[in-house]
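Repro:
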Amino acid sequence: MYNIETGRLPPTERQRIAEADKRARGAFAIFWRTKKSRGHWQKTWCGKTVRDLSEASKNPMRARQYETIYAHASAIAHGGPTSVTSSSTYYDEEEAEDTWIGRMNRSEEHGLRLVATLSSLFLFELLVLVGDRLPDYDAGWVLETFPRLVEIMWPRPVAAPGPRA
């Protein structure tokens, strides 16, 4: 966007982007809005935000899914607190810093697994509801794949080794 807005993009690239934009406007015309002779892409679905739609859903889990996924995605998009707090925290011992970093890493991993799980549940729910309208849809594959996906995202903890003799 910066190169486009500042005119630093070569003319051939500007032309290529303009042609792609024109094709997109034709293919997705229902999402293109014109106001005061200026066009822009629609920012919401049916005038509602994703939050509004999640809260209006009949599925009681949908609003919580939205809140959890949005919170984690926002932290990733805007930079998580670890990059700021780790450099401004004083540690008396090297071990204390390692312990703190380990705790932060486990927390981040847990959050990412939670987001992946909620996103996967949403995707599988969509496949169950509308999958039969998709070409080559195989409901059996969805049902076979889900348990494996859960294993990958939430592996069982490995038992700690016992005391040495």
